[in-house]
Amino acid sequence: MTDVLPPCPACSSPYTYEMGALLVCPECAHEWSPEQVEETPERVIKDSVGNVLADGDTVTVVKDLKVKGSATAIKVGTKVRGIRLVDGVGDHDIDCKVDGFGPMQLKSSVVKKV
């Protein structure tokens, strides 16, 4: 029977291997002891007024947002349906499609849950 090794806690790579008493990630070179592996707390993302967001929620934009490469901005009150929570670039933690603009990432601090 083969033991299933946990993924790398630094980069989540599934290709970890044992080297002596340590586990090693070949992708990011992170080394850790199997005893150090802890459960990561569940990530909670809240909107601009403190409501907890979940995948599939509908939100509205609470301030005008300039969009790079576009002459127009996303206006206050624009509804965004079917959001997906992600670890995006910087503070951008919502992946969505905005009507008239296409797919993009938004910050949870600029939306309000409907």
Automatic annotation (TrEMBL):
The keyword Hydrolase applies. Keywords: Hydrolase. It holds the Pfam family YjdM. Residues 45-114 form the Protein YjdM C-terminal domain. SUPFAM superfamilies: Prokaryotic SH3-related domain (SSF82057), Zinc beta-ribbon (SSF57783). GO terms for molecular function: hydrolase activity. Residues 5-33 form the Protein YjdM N-terminal domain. It comes from the Bacteria. Belongs to the YjdM family. This is Phosphonoacetate hydrolase. It comes from Sanguibacter antarcticus.
